[in-house]
Amino acid sequence: MRKLVYYIAVTLDGRIAGPAGQFDFFPQGDAQQTAAYMGFMNSLYPETVPTAFRAMAGVEDAPNRRFDTVLMGRATHQLDPAMPSPYAHLRQYVVSSTLKPDAAPDVTVVPGDPIGLVRDLKREETGLDIWLCGGGTLAGALMPEVDEIVLKSYPVVAGAGIPMVDGEFDPTVFSVAERTAFPNGVTATRLVRN
Questions:
Q1: Can you tell me the distance from the alpha carbon of 135 to that of 70, in angstroms, rounded to the nearest whole number?
Q2: What is the pTM of this model?
Q3: Contact predicate 2/121, CB 8 Å
Q4: Nearest to 40 by CA among 58, 24, 20
Q5: How much is the average pLDDT of 73-91?
């Protein structure tokens, strides 16, 4: 069965973006550090690079290695209005009760029941997993279905912003499967549900 994987960048205080959705404050390090970090992550997860930036990242022709489907909330989908179809190289689903069904080309808007959607997607036999891209409210709703978390932890405190998971109190235990630290201070950790 396919897995739902929450692949996300987070601050030390558990924020995935600032209060207005900003994410440009995540420290990258110098050019050499950034290249090493991005090269490593993009080699593992090339499909997580937005379509518009794939050529610049050197993954334009890279096959999807881990995911063939991306799932996101409305705010994540609308982070950049100039990119109505941010991951055109993937099947894109946006969970939103306010977006119109034809909000963007190549994007399927799902007005409700994200759990049902994920369970249906998990039953498909595509050979690749489902990427939960964000945001925190959707992650909270889908936490019962999250099989893995790939957490890119940045050495910065936001103080306020969008939490990584915004939901009911429901402690869910994950185990560290692997962890890589980078010279720019970022730690990438893959965790699996116990």
A1: 12
A2: 0.95
A3: yes
A4: 58
A5: 87
Give the whole-angstrom CA distance, residue 189 versus residue 155: 14
Q: Report angle CA 31, 64, 106 to the nearest 5 degrees.
A: 105
In the structure encoding, which two tokens stand for residue 160, read together?
A: 């306020």
Structure tokens that stand for 48 in this block: 């997580």
pLDDT for the residue 117 = 97
Q: Mention every residue, 6+ apart, whose C-beta is less than 8 A from residue 103.
A: 77, 84, 94, 96, 109
Residues 118 and 120: their CA atoms lie apart, in Å, by: 5
Spatial separation of the C-alpha atoms in residues 15 and 46, rounded to whole Å: 23
Buried b / exposed e across 75-112, counting CB within 10 Å, b at 16+? Answer: bbbbbeeebebbbbbbbbbbbbeebeeebbeebebbee
Alpha helix segments (H runs only) across the chain: 31-44, 54-57, 74-77, 114-123, 136-142
Q: Are 25 and 18 in contact (CB under 8 A)?
A: yes
Q: What is the pLDDT of residues 15-73, one digit of tens each?
A: 999 999 899 999 999 999 999 999 999 999 999 999 999 999 999 999 999 999 999 99
* Confidence band, pLDDT 50/70/90 cuts, at residue 102: confident
3-state secondary structure 103-144: CCCCEEEECCCHHHHHHHHHHCCCCCEEEEEECHHHHHHHHH
CA 106-162-12 angle, to 5 degrees, is 120
